[in-house]
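HUMAN: Mind sharing a backbone?

ASSISTANT:
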Amino acid sequence: MKNSFNTKWELFLFDCVLNEKDANPNAFENFEISNELIDIHTTKYKQDYLDDRILKTDEREVDQIYHTIEKLRSELDEVKYLNLYRESFGKILSEEQYNKLIKNEKCFYCELEKKDFGELYENHLIRKKANRGFNFEIDRKNPNEEYHYDNLVMACYWCNNAKTDEFTAEEFKPIGEAIGAALMARINR
């Protein structure tokens, strides 16, 4: 829920500043993330130089938009917005949907099953250093959307880590299959 809120919060603040909208609680509750806004935020705002303009029709530079967002952030009570989000999160991802999701015992991307990972661990075929990787993880198919049921899959540590926030599920699927093949090759030696 907190990660999902953070996604919506960042894009909401960006949208309010970019499009000069009022940042009130009602606007936040009704705010919907669009692919167009995600594209502008990730490919322009997060990557352009500080003195670049995000939109050709807007004279403000990235740096000016950043500082305006930070000023707005300091004026708003983020906890109030988080509490609003918490109240409605069950509509975005119900407990029933969550429980159904986490019962998946196969990685959406590489298709390795929990039993395969058990074999990798038991036979000391894993060389990772992180504490992650002993359970499947929830991954967002589109990493810039909220954690809603249709956007979520279970992924192994390796696929979730490699996918990062760069790839969509469709883009990453062939990479995941290659990861699965490499891990299965360890088992089949």
Notes: Residues 169-187 form the longest helix (19 residues). The beta strands are 137-140, 152-155. Residues 4 and 147 are 5 Å apart (CA to CA).
